[in-house]
């Protein structure tokens, strides 16, 4: 095996005919298993290259870096790189307002723009994403590479059950499946009646692999059962997820694995980085997500200083594209929360890992009477409770000067069994979260099921952001 | 210019880097403008090639043709070809039931299958489509070629506002736009609230070209106006349509052109043939659809004998793929209705033409008291009537032994003006259709707007097929 990193160049370009030997666990054996310090050294040089590229082509980055005397050529250490100011979503929105439609951080000619996608923008102005033609090929390649690590192989049928529109997760899964020489059924999701039809097609084509959001997989299992079909009959072996943290939430993960009898793989970073796939579990390292540092440079940072925190600590991910030429994100602040570690991965890849995935957003965290509550903790807890019927709502309100948190959970028990359910579950929640919780039950099926991502928190306080 | 047809070979394979000079009206100047008899001679040889290919690989075709002593090598004239038995949808459904999931008319190895799509199957068992990897490239190429003829050029933004799922029209439009080096926004359609978001994005990216179903374009114009945006402000120049006959129905076509201030282009054949694009108008021949006989061989046939009818006559289209290797359709009976002509096309292409598009289906035709009524005629008539508010329903029922037809149309007039509207419109409809019609009004907005294809006929008679 060569000691040079396979096909390592910028702008990236991959041999479109390459496929590993089917028995080989790695797409790029050297890149994935090499000494991480050696890889990091190559990445550091790449960071300088990407920054020089962006500085030359983008008024946005030039302005931003010139203001703090940051010169790409000076980035000769990770310490220097950590002082490059982060990019925020607000800055991008402002750049797109002033330079419509894509902002002045587009680094390719108009003629190179291949696809336009964006945030769905249910609140606020949507952000538009421009993806380059060559980028799209690279995206397909690195998706294929990570899907290979999940155990997906040429000829497998891949069923994509997420909306094909502005959202990029579905497109990346499809592009990766195509590059991997799979058979892809880009079914989509979100249209009335479509879930029942998905059940019909899953039963008919029996895909080996499946992509969706975690919420939607659970919804699909529910609809299958209504149609008197056990989701295990679909014969799915590998289910990979992004768009939501659920696939690393133990109880959600367990519920999906149990319903479908399949391996659950968490992946994904954030919309602005996609569909460059760069964080995911593998068949040999099934929990959490590895950070594929040669595709995207992931830092887990202190949210105040944006300097990396030591392995083992919690922080917020900051992302840098190493291969994107169209709208490269360089130190993009995610506002997400995670914890990273560096340990020996059973699959042999020498990447750092997020053992619990990306488990929340800084602004999803509910601050209540001085405590921080993560909605995913509530979800995880309830899914382990017998009698819980699959959906719940968290209502945060203010009575006078006091914040109050009410959790309303669907319950499958008859009325006479509910008081006991309320008492034990409410106590359990309270001791888990460390705040007082009013716990109530509602009938099964009361809350809407997510066709895409769940929205379970209703914050009624005056300062509520949502 | 060479007299040989450009890149004419089977299996088809096109130079993926080829693009014509932007000022040239034709993608393949010779193929498109050559002596049609010379082209037909090449097609006849290709038909033999495609049949020999299918005979060798598909038990379905072998069985079907052996039963009538039909040998591909004997197809030395179009007269001989017209005796090849047609393929029906029922046969394909039976083949897929007996040989799931794709039927025994798949002619490529499993490993070559790239995409799986299918009929949406709101009634009856859906049919699954397998598309080959190389087919998908060819599809992109011939879509690009026809989009070129519509006047779409590299660098144009193409907005695709049709559902990305089993339905193939949206995928073909996208693949063609990609091959043409356009910027594609694959927005999709069909999800609650998505139409208002489409309005936002159309105003923002101002695409030069747009693809949807005709019903949905009208729906979109309506939603734009509700949002106080004139659809003309989107700046769309070329709108191309398939999935429904509307874009050749004069009043629908006129309503779309008027609402958006854009050129309307009709295209499309049927689901089993797509996304091989082979029937469409061009910028120089804007009405009806040309039949690109070197992509798909189109015959317009007597629906009883399946022999072609003379140019100038009405009949049912019968389609044969000339480039598809995965599930080639050879003399597929469409059950549609059209009329074909052969005349000098202003754009210079030497293809036959369907001057009124594909205007109906044999089984959509309403048989009422011995008369045939096409729902598109009612649609076309109503759109020309002042006070008509955009949607209607046709109810066919039986009172005793008599068939009754009721048309319920939305009306924007206040109650006092309705009686006059009912009288004149009802009389107009009756004299147009030649059958007695009960005509009623309902308020504007009464009927659902189609997110995909319109369903306006309710047949309540005992023998109703739907």
Explain briefly what this protein structure is.
Chain A is an alpha/beta fold and 466 residues long. Chain A contains twelve helices and 21 strands.
What would you say this structure looks like, in words?
In chain A, helix 2 crosses helix 3 (59-66) and helix 6 crosses helix 7. Helices cover 30% and strands 21% of the residues of chain A. Chain A is built from twelve helices and 21 strands. The first copy, chain A, is of the alpha/beta class. The radius of gyration of chain A is 22 Å and the shape is globular. The mean pLDDT of chain A is 93. In chain A, the strands form six sheets. In chain A, strands 4-3-5-6-7 form a five-stranded parallel sheet, sandwiched between helices.
Number of helices of chain A: 12
Q: Round the Cα radius of gyration of chain A to an integer and report it.
A: 22 Å
User: What integer is the average pLDDT of chain A?
Assistant: 93
Indicate the multimeric state.
Answer: homodimer
Termini gap of chain A: 53 Å
Largest sheet of chain A: 5 strands, parallel
* Interface with most residues: A-B, 42 and 42 residues
Number of strands of chain A: 21
Instruction: Indicate the percent of residues in helices of chain A.
Output: 25-40%
Strand content of chain A: 15-25%
- Widest beta sheet: strand line-up of chain A: 4-3-5-6-7
The best one-word shape of chain A is: globular
Estimated structural class of chain A: alpha/beta
Low-confidence sequence ranges of chain A: none
